[in-house]
Write a structure and sequence with these properties.
- This protein has a domain of 220 residues.
- The protein is globular.
- Strands 1-9-8-2-5-3-4 form a seven-stranded mixed sheet, sandwiched between helices. The protein has a three-stranded mixed sheet with strand order 7-6-10, covered by helices on one side.
- The longest helix is centred in the first third of the chain and has 25 residues.
- The protein has 316 residues and is of the alpha/beta class.
- The C terminus is likely disordered.
Length: 316
């Protein structure tokens, strides 16, 4: 019975997504965003484990703020996630010129300045703002991007995600056997590889400090640049009050491997995590507070790596 209900739920969800994507072709972005905001606001009216977890995470991340402030952030987060849904529907069929007209690039040369025919760059980001917009805007601007992604359980949703990310020549490297080799090959072809490292996933990693607490962080985004000697750039999307998407890129980090590669990678992963925290603090409503970011905690004697405050950079 549970399996049947799950199948019905997935089928209805897929039909709803297809209907949304089809309808988005004739609706302006402003309308899709408004519909999404309404959906996000309504969803917050139904209490559940995700909502309770988000409240708990906000209290842990911002203990110095009062409850009213945290409640406002949570409401804004719901509206943000709904807005993101409407934006993704628009991105499905929007021409590149329309995407670029609504994108504000800041420091793009930090990402593209060092690209050559056989040397790419690693773009490290998190689930901040609209990360799918970041992907497609770079593709629309002519930047070849290969993104590390998780294969979705339902193959129909997985196909939708792949088609979206591949609209302007984007590629996906699905987690698992062969993913690392595909990312290295992309770097050797002068492409940018996109890596999101702000979720606790089943992957090799280290504990890095995030909002003062240990958080299991994938280490591949640090190991790959160290092994290939390619630059690392942190970049983030942030929706602005006027409706544009600000896409800002920090100056590149040129990793230099030392004698202890694992320790160097751990330090770099902590630094990158510090950059993500900086972005979340700047735009707290535009992050996924429902995610189990602190699900795993270190055992006795395990190292927790911390980003040097002087190297985290300023908010862009």
């Amino acid at each position: 019975m549970v399996s049947l209900l799950r199948t019905v739920r997935d089928d209805l969800g897929y039909l709803g997504v297809r209907a949304l994507l089809g309808g988005a072709r004739v609706l302006p972005l402003s309308v899709l965003r408004a519909v999404g905001r309404t959906i996000g606001s309504v969803a917050l009216a139904f209490p559940g484990r995700d909502l309770a977890r988000a409240r708990d995470h906000l209290a842990k991340a911002f203990p110095e703020r009062d409850q009213a402030w945290r409640d406002d952030v949570l409401k804004g987060c719901g509206r943000h996630l709904g807005t993101l849904l409407g934006e993704v529907a628009w991105l499905w069929s929007a021409p590149p010129s329309a995407i670029l007209a609504r994108s504000e690039f800041v420091g793009l040369e930090n990402l593209t300045g060092g690209l050559t025919a056989n040397r790419g760059a690693a773009l490290v980001t998190g689930h901040c703002g609209n990360w799918e917009w970041l992907n497609l805007a770079l593709g629309a601007a002519g930047v070849g991007l290969t993104v590390a992604a998780r294969e979705l359980q339902d193959s129909r949703f997985d196909e939708v995600a792949r088609r979206l990310r591949g609209r302007f020549g984007g590629e996906s490297a699905l987690r698992g056997k062969g993913a690392g080799a595909k990312l290295v090959q992309a770097l050797h072809r002068g492409r940018v590889i996109g890596l999101l490292i702000d979720q606790d996933i089943a992957a090799p990693g280290v504990f890095a400090e995030f909002f003062g607490r240990p958080a299991w962080t994938p280490i591949g985004a640090a190991l790959l640049p160290l092994r290939t000697k390619c630059p690392v750039v942190t970049g983030f999307a942030a929706r602005q009050a006027g409706g544009t998407m600000r896409l800002a890129f920090d100056p590149p980090i040129e990793p230099t491997p030392g004698e202890d590669l694992q320790a160097e990678a751990a330090r770099l992963a902590a630094l990158l995590t510090g950059r993500i925290e900086r972005q979340v603090r700047a735009y707290p409503m535009q992050w996924v507070w429902m995610h189990k970011r602190w699900r795993h905690q270190p055992g006795k004697g395990e190292t927790v790596w911390t980003a040097p405050a002087a190297r985290q950079g300023d908010v862009r």
